[in-house]
Description:
Layout: H1 2-13, E1 22-26, E2 38-44, E3 62-68, E4 71-77, H2 88-101, E5 105-114, E6 124-132, H3 160-172, E7 177-184, H4 193-201, E8 206-208, H5 212-220, E9 225-234, H6 245-269
Parallel strand pairs: 1-4, 1-5, 5-9, 6-7, 7-8
Antiparallel strand pairs: 2-3, 3-4, 5-8, 6-9
Helix pairs in contact: 1-2, 2-5, 3-6
Amino acid sequence: xxxxxxxxxxxxxxxxxxxxxxxxxxxxxxxxxxxxxxxxxxxxxxxxxxxxxxxxxxxxxxxxxxxxxxxxxxxxxxxxxxxxxxxxxxxxxxxxxxxxxxxxxxxxxxxxxxxxxxxxxxxxxxxxxxxxxxxxxxxxxxxxxxxxxxxxxxxxxxxxxxxxxxxxxxxxxxxxxxxxxxxxxxxxxxxxxxxxxxxxxxxxxxxxxxxxxxxxxxxxxxxxxxxxxxxxxxxxxxxxxxxxxxxxxxxxxxxxxxxxxxxxxxxxxx
Length: 270
């Protein structure tokens, strides 16, 4: 794997991706932060050696490099998922590439459903902890110990310093920011009423189909990471309505300006 990572990094270095300080992974419907970036270089995923290709219609499929709040950033405009047929190693390959490029901090966003019914769609949740329900680990492969500690501690997977900064920014900017536990499932189907009840029982506040693999690999690399969920629907098993993708995208768009504020202010302070 290291050979493949180095090939991708060499390709990106040759196209102007020089010493980024912060990596950003953008979730479904959350691409407008790109408008705040002074773009220096961008490459489609399918041009990068050994990179997967985004297949979801809501994910652009570009790696973007530029300046944001005076910091060099590298941004994944679109991510990868198990439900696209990729492995957990494929899904997390870009995190390893960004790390070798030089990032010192990683920010992750996603669109998710609110299990905690005191949370409403169009609001944001800072992820404080997670539950991995994807049935595997991106670290479960032969030779992983050559890339970092095999038995990675996950007692505090989200960086406390960045989380505290995000909470302070939210307070100062009057952003309604929840904090909770994110459950990651395989998808792509959404959950049944019984599954929503189960998720609530085991302690989830929100559910989605991404993020946790990237967080695990960031911890494997000892890369400080923070993540926020944009809540796009309310998962009330007693009043469940059929999924409406247009409504989900609209809810993401409603919350996106607050997410952009949190990320840009945090980057300025890093």
